[in-house]
Amino acid sequence: MSEIAGQTGLRAGATAVVNESYSFACMRCGHGWEQSYEIEHHTDAAGHEFVIYVADGKVVPSPLSKPECHHCDSHVVRIMRPGRVASARDATHRPSRVPPPAGPVEAPAAGADGEEREHHHWHLSDLLHPFQRKAS
């Protein structure tokens, strides 16, 4: 762990600071969370560029290198664009738009004129009958 890990606030010498957010989902336990980061761009004494990730005012490891689930400590974590966890949570709290399954439907036994109809089972050959060629 570096000496600056755990410090709060932006470090001096940052050439640029970019804010990024990610959504995370653990593939082991299903826990989901979101985190915003301040990504500080720095240049060392040799002229090499490097970045420091800051979350909640503390320096943290890059979430893209080896994310860890804080719920079960698994490293099988999916990284997604921001807002995915929140939208999934919202969807679970919305009322369902799917109507309940319908019960069995029974066709009336009598015709419109009140006469009893004979129950007919349709077969594929019945449906294809109009398309059959007549023997000459």
Note down, in words, how this protein is organized.
It is a single chain. The chain starts with 15 loop residues before the first strand and ends in an 8-residue tail after the last helix. The chain is α+β, with helices and mostly antiparallel strands and 136 residues long. It has helices at 84-93, 124-128, and strands at residues 16-26, 32-43, 49-55, 58-60, 77-80. Strands 4-3-2-1-5 form a five-stranded antiparallel β-sheet, covered by helices on one side.
How is the largest sheet built, in terms of strand order? 4-3-2-1-5
Q: How would a crystallographer describe the biggest sheet?
A: 5 strands, antiparallel
* % residues in beta strands: 25-35%
Mean pLDDT: 75
Tell me, what's the shape? elongated
N-end to C-end Cα span: 93 Å
Number of β-strand runs: 5
> In which range does the helix fraction lie?
10-25%
- Secondary-structure element order, N to C: EEEEEHH
> How many distinct helices?
2
Instruction: Specify Rg, calculated over alpha carbons.
Output: 32 Å
Please, what is the oligomeric state?
single chain
Query: Which structural class fits the helix and strand makeup?
Result: alpha+beta
Poorly predicted residue ranges: 1-8
How does the SSE layout of this entry go?
Layout: E1 16-26, E2 32-43, E3 49-55, E4 58-60, E5 77-80, H1 84-93, H2 124-128
Antiparallel strand pairs: 1-2, 1-5, 2-3, 3-4
